[in-house]
Write a structure and sequence with these properties.
heterodimer; A: three-stranded mixed β-sheet; 22 strands; 4% helix; B: mainly beta; 13-stranded antiparallel β-sheet; two-stranded antiparallel sheet; 3 helices
Chain lengths: 405, 270
């Protein structure tokens, strides 16, 4: 491992910017509230890369994620702007800019209208996010798939006694981001993101549509959703010269439901979808529980135990999913201290292949304005043909220090 | 003319009756409940309010850590249903925008949701964790979410000068949580006889030992009728840690309705 000059450059830029904010958080400039974070991240891989072209050694990144918010005095209008930028030392495809949110929202007495770029999350489970489909996954960010690209939308919503209804018109498809040739977490060949194919003749200009109903009935929280448009996950084919994977995005119809039953210290969770448009119509589901032991060992600590089971009926004409028939189990520890220290350790096992995935996450605040996030992820017992075989050398440990403002 | 006078007389008798009622054969339990109810009802009709709360957490070495929260409350008139509340975290910066929504129940478990801004995800959370610390402070969740009148049974103990306002006389009342999963066997509260406001509360843990003391001060009248404490101080006698709650910028009569206290609205007004 060698530390290269640009690492030091990144580090010093970050430190410089981090000291600019002074002590105050959430500054207000002309009525606009400014907040966000700047982070320095480094990844260490425990093995040499598996595929030709991938670089070895330490990977360093700087992430800049400011947030600008303005709300009129009467609360009726709200403007939000959240750009995102990552500069990566190794993978040009990971160095990227995105607008996570940039919208105007009007809140009326009965209806809300939102126009612009926004992020929407649907669902309840932890090991897979089947129902969540509005936003494209920002695939170069993290292996957990919980970072999303901003989605252009017109969202009309109404909150009634009987629940909330959201209608979405989604113009402008966002293609998934993938690691470049030199990056980790990819298959034997890089993905050619410049030559994506689309089932729709309108290509990325196809206008997608989504609707959601959500409410709670006593201890039950229920969501029902519908999506028609271009699937966020592509299927891959080999390019003519055989050097790249070409992504193809299909048109799909999908209905989904997410249900949570909350009783005592138990959370029972279920998500299910039925999708049409990729081979035979298929169903997929994930379900499980989370149980929390509060104030264990006579301390303020909480220990949560999680387990989820996944089922996926898709065939080979649907996009590949590694979360297809896995059993996931995890333990969450929250110290409930001033630093908000939290640890999550989880593992999942593929029932048919026996392949395992281990995940460790630890988060802690330092002082008032810094956070430290540790991630360690390992794949074990992966053999040729298994879901994550291409990633078998990509075990890594990652540390991020962020300055929040 | 006659009519008016007899009405006045009737009103006078009515006042006399109400004033004298507590002196009549009232059990300590009834008296305790009546004083708590009078205190609770002195707040009736506030409809909604918003306040900025600065929380100062202090460990036993005196090291301090600060949090700023925006609290909104929606009054629910029915005493058999609790109020609705949203707490939006403003600092520390890494959790700013996180919101906690609570629909208080009386004896059933409260409904609670958490909004996580990084993922824009709303999670229904278990409200069993009554006695757990709120944001690492010396306040437990139930210290915020379980202030409904009928969540307790009461017993009047005595009257004495208020501990932190000796010019006032306080009724000293024991109250016993009736809801599940409380960390307390009892609380002893001092309620003044002039403005009917809570001045001090001692909290006794499950072993019936004194765990914490809350003192409430800096009372100010808002909108001409609603008393609000501006300084709360919770001291944990076991750990030596303490948490101060300083309230500022009270706002009443905001354009807030039921739908601002629904899970779907979390994150859309920050």
């Amino acid at each position: 491992m060698t530390i290269k000059p640009h690492h030091i450059l990144f580090g010093s830029v970050a430190l410089l910017l981090s000291s600019l904010g002074g002590q105050a958080s959430a500054a207000e400039i002309g009525g606009v509230r400014v907040s966000g974070f700047i982070g320095v991240e480094s990844r260490v891989f425990t093995q040499n890369p598996k595929h030709a072209g991938q670089k070895t050694g330490l990977e360093a990144s700087v992430i800049f994620n400011p947030e600008f918010r303005y709300r009129t005095e009467d609360r009726a209008h709200r403007f939000t702007f959240i750009p995102f930028y990552r500069q990566d030392s190794r993978d040009d495809a990971r160095t990227h800019f995105d607008i996570r949110e940039a919208y105007w929202q009007w809140r009326g007495n009965e209806w809300d209208v939102l126009v612009g770029i926004n992020k929407v999350f649907w669902g309840v489970t932890e090991s897979a996010h089947l129902v969540n489909i509005v936003n494209q996954v920002d695939g170069v960010e993290d292996l957990d798939g919980e970072d999303y690209l901003g989605q252009p939308m017109i969202n009309i919503a109404t909150q009634q006694d009987w629940g909330r209804v959201d209608l979405y018109v989604l113009p402008g498809f966002r293609e998934r981001t993938f690691p470049g040739t030199s990056g980790r977490f990819r298959g034997p060949l890089p993905v050619d993101t410049d030559n994506a194919k689309f089932e729709s003749g309108a290509k990325e200009k196809h206008i997608d549509f989504a609707a959601r109903y959500s409410h709670y009935f006593g201890d039950w929280d229920v969501g029902l959703s519908y999506f028609y448009g271009t699937d966020r996950a592509p299927v891959f084919s080999l390019s003519n010269d055989g050097t790249r994977f070409i992504p193809t995005y299909n048109l799909i119809n999908q209905v989904g439901t997410d249900i949570q039953y909350t009783t005592g210290a138990w959370l029972w969770k279920f998500e299910g979808i039925v999708r049409e448009g990729q081979g035979d119509t298929f169903a997929a589901a994930v379900g499980g529980f989370e149980y929390t032991f509060y104030q264990v060992f006579e301390k303020n600590w909480d220990i949560g135990v999680l387990a989820e089971y996944q089922y996926d009926g898709r065939d080979a004409s649907a996009p590949f999913s590694a979360q297809d028939e896995d059993i996931f189990a995890g333990v969450r520890l929250a110290l409930n201290d001033i630093q908000d220290t939290q640890v999550l350790a989880g593992f999942s096992i593929d029932q048919s292949s026996g392949e395992q995935f281990y995940n460790f996450e630890a988060d802690r605040r330092i002082g008032e304005n810094y956070t430290l996030e540790l991630r360690a992820r390992f794949i074990a017992d992966s053999n040729a043909g298994d879901d994550s075989f291409a990633l078998e050398h990509d075990d890594y440990i990652q540390l991020r220090i962020s300055r929040h403002f | 003319m006659m009519k008016k006078q007899s009405f006045k007389l009737l009103a006078g008798i009515a006042v006399l009756l109400t004033v004298s009622t507590p002196v009549m054969a009232e059990t300590p339990e009834e008296k305790g409940f009546n004083i708590a109810a009078r205190s609770d009802r002195s707040d009736r009709g506030f409809v909604n309010n918003e306040v900025t709360a600065t929380m100062i957490l202090r460990n036993n070495q005196g090291q301090e850590s600060k949090r700023i929260l925006l609290q909104r409350t929606l009054e629910v008139q029915d005493e058999n249903v609790g109020d609705k509340g949203v707490i939006i975290f403003q600092s520390p910066a890494d959790v700013s925008g996180t919101a906690f929504l609570s629909h208080a129940k009386i004896l059933k478990q409260d409904d609670q949701w958490l909004y996580l801004p990084a993922l824009k995800r709303v999670k229904r959370i278990s409200s069993k964790n009554k006695s757990g610390p709120f944001l690492g402070s010396e306040f437990a969740f139930e210290d915020f979410t379980s202030q409904e009148l009928n969540k307790y049974k009461y017993k009047w103990l005595r009257a004495e000068p208020c501990p932190n306002a000796p010019s006032l006389t306080c009724d000293v009342i024991e109250r016993y949580p009736q809801y599940e999963f409380s960390g307390y066997t009892k609380q002893i509260g001092w309620v003044d006889q002039t403005d009917f406001q809570s001045r001090k509360i001692d909290f006794y843990d499950r072993k019936d030992e004194l765990l914490k003391t809350l003192t409430l001060g800096g009372y100010e009248k808002h909108e001409g009728k609603y008393w609000r404490a501006h300084e709360l101080k919770m001291v944990n006698h076991v750990t030596g840690k303490s948490t101060d709650f300083l309230f500022s910028d009270f706002k009443f009569g905001l354009k807030l309705s039921d739908r601002d206290f629904e899970k779907g609205s979390l994150g859309s007004d920050y």
